[in-house]
Amino acid sequence: MPSYLTAPPHRPGPGRRSLLAGAAGVASAALLTGCTAGSGADGRASAARRLRARAAEDSTELLGRYDAVLAAHPSLAGRLGPLRAEVKRHAEAFAEGRAPASASPSASGRGAAAPSASASPSVPSDPEKAVTGLAKAERELADRRGAALVDAPPAEARLLASVAAAGAAHAYLLTEGDK
Q: pTM higher than 0.70, yes or no?
């Protein structure tokens, strides 16, 4: 009889396939719901601008959290650096195609409030608690982005779904990465 290798022990938490399946599900939902969003070209363009502005603001705020943790705990640079770089790319992707802040009164109003909102968040002195806080922020933002897919225009829904899936993966890596 041939001998068969046994499967490696299962690690706690979702596996790679589960994460990919979840990302595919989020993307599918985005494609299905994104096609019905908006009522006219002006409404869709306006909704797209608002969604991109909010998403860029959220990514920029998350980037600030990464920066604060890295400033407080430089030893985490190897672990957090790649994730921070991804968050920065997300902010840049959402910022593409947006009108400058001075072109819109609501955007400039948010821009004026941004310095106080993006002031350095408090960072726990324990590095693992700081990483746990980042994981929580990533998870919450991914959840909000997933919920926003229902009303997102198609192009923005695809981007939002992709970034939401990446955020969920970041949260997993931050909580399970060293186990």
A: no
